[in-house]
Amino acid sequence: MTTHPMNPVRSEQGVALIIVLLLLAVMAGLTTGLTLNGQTEIAMAHNETYYARTRAAAEAGMNRAVEQIIGDTTTDLIGTKAIPNIGNGPIALGEEYWYSFQLLDDDDPLLYGGDELSDDQLAAMGADKDPPAPENNNPDVDTNSRMVLRATGFGPRGTTVTIARILMRDTIAAIPGMNINPAILVNGDLDLDGNSLVVNGKKGNVHANGDIRGGDTDGEMGTGITGDVTATGDIDDNIDPGGLKAGGMPVMPVPEIKAEDYLGIATHKLTSTGAKLVRTGPGVPGTWAACSGSGALKCPTQWTWNGTTSTWSADGAMPTSGVTKSTYYVEGNAEVHGTGKSTGFTEISIVAEGSLKITGNGKFKPGNDSKMQFVTNGDFELGGTADVNDPLDMDGQIMVREQMHIYGNSKFQGRVMVEDRDSEANACSVSAVAGCRRGSSKLSDNNLSGNMTVTYNGQLGGMDVPDVPLKYTNIISGWIEQ
């Protein structure tokens, strides 16, 4: 047999080794790529974790600051720039995470990378004030009562997250995008009944921390409201104001309403024992004497006491004891019917520890320089043709701790605030705490109806009462990522 030797050039010996080496190289590359990709994913996951936890730290700081700010009514935050009880930070959450606070004027260049704002931007910042109060690029001088609350969270590897919210302070809280200081502010649900209801003026706005319902389902309600109608809840479709209509809005805080806070402005006291007293000395509780004779101690006429119902009632012209103005502090319920002058206005105010009812055709304007018209620890009714609308633009205030009904052909110029306290829990027989209601509850809901007219031009400032510390109402609004 003839054999042929193998040509070494054409030999395939070693190919398998080369293929295996190539495959190993490819596998090594894939493994390295997958390893690097896995490390990148792990690093990204760590970064996301750091960010999420750092943001949670910032939000925790923000929530803590907001809780303290909303609950504090005695600190002028605009002046102190310090968050009550907790300072401005930094505050550690552990070894890895911590947060800090800042309260800055809204035109502080620190908020804008060190750049000052233009004149137009500064003017826009104060455009919602009445009169307008433009800002000034000075972080130490605030003109529009608006600050920015910043909370910054800090985490590992230099992770930081800064969030900010708008802090506003006014007698009535402000909401960006709408007029502040509404004519009607109710801390609960509000019913609007009757097409003849009118709320007008420069600040003829209505807000409820709840739902706003319209009782007339056949037509459009609220057409007489020239301003905004807003609520934290829902607003009936048939309510049609002249301005903004918006549900789901932020809460407008209503300050706690207590008759005893206004004892300092009273000129007369109608007691729970049926006695009539006249103030003879300033302060709270002040010095009082039994009324008698004539002159400064003359008794106010027309007031009668019903011990069975714990009610003081007045009917008639009601002279004011020889003084121009009178403010009556009533230790019980008060009812006034047909009281007032046939021409001009009677300058009297009533502060009641019980419920208060005003009907008939009286004409009133505030009997004190604090412009408190009616204050009650219980319920409030204003009806008939009572006229509390001064054509000379004299705004007054109605402040109600429980519920209110305003109806009939009555008129009022000023603002109405209703705290909407639970009637059962607010009874003195149950709670016996400051601000509790003497006597029985009269109402269970809040209602504006009939041909009622409320006119408010926003002239009222703070609720400044002698011998009572000034209270600040703050609201936190908006959310800013930085």
Question: Keyphrases for this structure?
Answer:
alpha/beta; 16-stranded mixed sheet; 9-stranded mixed sheet; elongated
Summarize the structure.
The protein has 482 residues and is an alpha/beta fold.
Q: Beta-strand percentage?
A: 25-35%
Helicity, in percent?
10-25%
Assembly of the depicted chains: single chain
The beta-strand count equals 30
| Low-pLDDT segments | 171-180
- The separation of the N and C termini measures 92 Å
Task: Work out the count of structural domains.
Answer: 2
- Average the pLDDT over all residues and give the rounded result: 80
- Write down the overall geometry: elongated
- Structural class category: alpha/beta
> What characterizes the major β-sheet?
16 strands, mixed
Radius of gyration: 34 Å
Q: Helix segment count?
A: 4
Write the layout of secondary structure elements.
Elements: H1 15-71, H2 77-80, E1 91-92, E2 98-105, H3 119-125, E3 146-154, E4 160-170, E5 184-186, E6 190-192, E7 198-200, E8 206-208, E9 212-214, E10 229-231, E11 245-246, E12 268-270, E13 276-281, E14 287-290, E15 303-306, E16 311-315, E17 326-330, E18 333-337, E19 346-352, E20 356-359, E21 364-365, E22 372-376, E23 380-382, E24 387-388, E25 396-400, E26 404-406, E27 411-418, H4 423-426, E28 447-448, E29 453-455, E30 473-481
Parallel strand pairs: 5-8, 5-27, 6-9, 6-28, 7-29, 8-10, 10-11, 12-17, 16-18, 17-19, 18-20, 19-21, 19-22, 20-23, 22-25, 23-26, 24-27, 25-27, 26-28, 27-29
Antiparallel strand pairs: 1-2, 2-3, 3-4, 4-30, 12-13, 13-14, 15-16
